[in-house]
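PROTEIN FOLDING TASK:
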Amino acid sequence: MSRFPILPRRQSGFAYIAAVIFLVVIAGIAVVLLRLTDTQQSTVNQALLASRASLAARGGLEWVFNNPAQRCSQAPLSTSNAAPAGAVNHLNDFRAESGFLVSVSCSFRAYNEGEAIDDSGNSSPVVKRIYRIEAVACNGTATTCPDPGSVPRADYVERAQVATICLLTNGAPCV
């Protein structure tokens, strides 16, 4: 027999505590990764909707560019220098095709720029109209864009495009 008595060892349980801490850390990392994935998916969805809204607004501008004189005023162009009443066209065809309502508004300013002399020697002022065309596209539920009622929605997107075009009073492009 030895001089020192062999005492029974006490179990400390350190391995169980380390395992629990390890599992908590792994679970925390998993939650963070899931959140990042969800945030990334939302970001991608918003970017896609924003691109589609920009293209819908651009389509509204091109709709006006096909015939700005008739699309930007209630009446055909006249010789008066008065701007149209700021009529807004709502393009519902765009909503049916793309899911975006496009509102297009036009205004113009007329400028006298010199005089033109015709073949018989008569002179007349050269009147140029600078049209400002604004197209706003949104995926709201209202009948107009922008749609303040839909702004709190997470998937609401609104984009605007502005362009200018110069036309003479006869509808010809400016030079």
User: Anything to note?
Assistant: The chain is about 35% helix and 25% strand. The first strand starts at residue 88 and ends at 91. Residues 36-168 form one domain. The chain has one domain: 36-168.
